[in-house]
Amino acid sequence: MEASSLTNRSKALSFLFRKPSACRSCGSEFVAQNIINTWKDLPSENWAEMMEFWHCHKPHDHDHQDPESLATKGYGANHAISAQQGVGFVDLTSFLFSESDCRGLQYSSSTPDAGFDLSSLALDDEESKKFLHVFCRECTTEVGLYNVAALSVTLFKWKITCQTKTADPSPSSSECLAATLLATISRSGSSKSIITPHTSGIANPEAVSHKNLHLWVLNPNVVYTASSAADRKTAMKILYKHIDPLEAEKILTSMTSDVQEISLPEEAIKAADNRLLWSSELLPVQERTFKEWQVGLLQRWEPAS
């Protein structure tokens, strides 16, 4: 679910209502049917900061606002959305569940071999961790994250399947990234983003660490046809380059920066990198580079026609 549908999450909730979710690789069930009674939209990532800013700088109220009073209202900057039993939360790229509603998962601070059936066991020796890796117990595919602060299991949309009323294709990680870029442009007006890894440490010991992706959206809505595709495709035309983590941090923390940060698992970043590299072959040779940037296409999700 992406672009018009991924951003229209409330409409999609009725499709998911009371339906099970399972591993896309092996079909192992993670959330059983009828476990989830209610679905809710997750707010944008910076909702707490925006609410705090509004209450601290209301044009009609110049009285000083106590940060502690904001936190008690539930939207201080240190406040997080917490999982609720029987409630499923949904955003552009993931679903959020209570651990008690999930099954068939393993939690680990490193690899699936060091995984546990309960997050509390995985955290015994890793109390400083903000996230844990979540793996399918059956096939050991990494399918999400456990957020320690929110006490919630986050399952990536591109790693699971859900029963839906319509036979729409399941989104890939690159299509979820495209949806996130669209939402970022809509929210902040910025067309530049740096894609950074979700967590420190590599869950897959065979994974090769790579530089962060710096993306600049040139055109968010490009329609093209190619001999390698059966039908027309909708994509985003993107300038991209690789930058090291230190340079990325310098750009993101600059007071004059207009670049947004998007966090994804390292595997998803690598998939987007490969997709952009492959798509550049579809462009005329003279249009594949621009100064120090490379040019590529990032495919957008489309519903079944």
From TrEMBL:
InterPro entries: UBQ-conj_enz_E2-bd_prot (IPR019193). Signal peptide: none annotated. GO terms for biological process: proteasome-mediated ubiquitin-dependent protein catabolic process; protein autoubiquitination; protein monoubiquitination; protein polyubiquitination. One of its GO terms (molecular function) is ubiquitin protein ligase activity. It comes from the Eukaryota. GO terms for cellular component: cytosol; nucleus; ubiquitin ligase complex. This is Ubiquitin-conjugating enzyme E2-binding protein.
